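Troubleshooting log. The previous run stalled partway through. Resubmitting the same two chains, unchanged.
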Amino acid sequence: MDKRSHRYCVIMCGGIGSRFWPYSRTRLPKQFIDFLGTGRTLLQMSYDRISNIIPAENIVIMTNGLYADLVREQLPMIAPSQILLEPARRNTAPCIAWAAWHIAARDSEASMIVTPADHVITREADFELSVLNGFEFVESHDALLTLGISPTRPETGYGYIQIGDVVQDGINKVKTFTEKPDHELAKVFVASGEFFWNSGIFLWRASAIREALRRWAPDVAGAFDAAAHEVYRDHAAETEFIDKAFPGCVGISIDYAVMERADNVYVETVTFGWNDLGTWSALYDLSPKNIEQNVTQNCNVLAYNCRGNIFAVRGDKLIVADGLEDYIVADADGVLLICPKAREQKIKQMFTDAKVKFGDKYE
Amino acid sequence: MDKRSHRYCVIMCGGIGSRFWPYSRTRLPKQFIDFLGTGRTLLQMSYDRISNIIPAENIVIMTNGLYADLVREQLPMIAPSQILLEPARRNTAPCIAWAAWHIAARDSEASMIVTPADHVITREADFELSVLNGFEFVESHDALLTLGISPTRPETGYGYIQIGDVVQDGINKVKTFTEKPDHELAKVFVASGEFFWNSGIFLWRASAIREALRRWAPDVAGAFDAAAHEVYRDHAAETEFIDKAFPGCVGISIDYAVMERADNVYVETVTFGWNDLGTWSALYDLSPKNIEQNVTQNCNVLAYNCRGNIFAVRGDKLIVADGLEDYIVADADGVLLICPKAREQKIKQMFTDAKVKFGDKYE
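Second attempt completed without errors. Output:
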């Protein structure tokens, strides 16, 4: 068997994307939407990208039970046993743990890349080279590898990774993880050349992440160690076990549970044109603009005295706007949002406020 | 026969209301909408108001052919022969002329009130007294009477009437008609006590307006004089004649064609709580406001840092807005408008722009 057959990809697509509410909805999160108007959803684009380097039968989709039909519909080539349905939302650590236990049961020599489904990557050839390089590294080292993106601006919406000693060309030890910095600090980070954006894309051997989880998040690891290997090889048995065990896990991110604690954490610094599409501003930055710097997403717009806005409306709708500057105008399925880009960090809270006030009607 | 049986009312409801676009639409103009959330449309409220003083069989509805079904649906008590369908849009002079010829053929002693269907009147008892007073006057004078509203603010969106000599208590000769003044001039007008808002509500004997039209707008009068009295008494014959003759009339307002020229024009000064609902600001002023001075029309709103806005959305929709001040946000049937109240005079133009760019899709 060649190395390639031991390589796996885990695509995580269980999130709600509430920072993109109301365009992204609990019942139809952004990863299932043709966000860039390319004819493919973000999930499909993630699949297309990775299927160039990973055998189709080694691609595992992790999602919430709610989205089973959406995944089957959008990725009809994926076997049902390759779609793992989380029975509850528990952040990334339990999700990744399950994927690792599942893959390890299939293949004791497995290495894997873990990626969210909702990122945009513009230079796919560079992406492929970086990923192959990363696989080579984790297959020959006891390493948890994260991809660090060369920053192109002092973005305050991302986490940063400070690089330590060089291990080999393009791969360094991680010195620190830093949460979203303020603008001044972000400028210092970018100028230093030592800081890279934390992409949330990871590579490791299945055995390495299992060991790390057992050491740094024994509760999470314990939940999955409670089942024998055979359980993870039998789709029905696995589902039955997970439906009981998974909801008992604490909701914790893999960064917090493992990456920020372990001492075998490395970063591969990459430059493949990455955008996490985490916010409306991220989408705005990525999108073509007209002469007034307005971005129009899937809709007809008549704009008067408008500058720097993003207009996103689902359906065949007309927006007529006058006097808006640097706003998000998003309208979908019974909810209209009008919000300054500068206050987009509040959208998640607005989503929650709407839930408190109106129940799940506008979720 | 008592005087009452010779009194008629003409309700004009053929307009598009494009200054209220997109809430008011070519296919469903504002007069056919329950604009104030009272359970009655503006047309129905106009009918209810006038039916207290005018016999039901003497109420004539003038509208565009497009709205025949809407009128029949909303006023099922009105006989088909009382609904006159204009085959083309020709402003108020041809509309009023037709109504006058139609009524005169029915009743040579007829007097009539002509009123738009989309005004709001808050003090109905005062309205009734004013109208009865007006009827008495026109029945005993050769007079074209208009109702002038005592101004309560220096409104720049209305026409003004300057009063001349007193004829009797509450009724004066008209000195001048003035188009929409600027703010400074409007303040002078209001302070003077000599200027009243032009309501567009008229009273006269059918014979008086016919004479005036023959003198001041002979083209218009000629079009209707071309048919014999009998034609106007036979619904089918009248329809056939009008469908041919009406489109040939010039589009001209009754103010311009007659009122500003004739020398027997009088004004009755009234104070019955009137609003022409001509603009979003007019609706805003009329509506109850929350503590942040926002007005909400038929919709759920979550407003953050918002002041002085009017939110109007058809359907069971949620608006989430942040950082808007003194805006109109209106959403209906595939069109969303976001426009500062201060620029509402442009809405008519925006409506036209949308037509030029997208055809009749968003009309």
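Takeaways: Chain B touches chain A at residues 22, 300, 302, 304, 313, 315-324, 327, 329, 331, 334-340, 343, 346, 350, 353-354, 357-358, 361-362 (CB under 8 Å). The radius of gyration of chain B is 21 Å.
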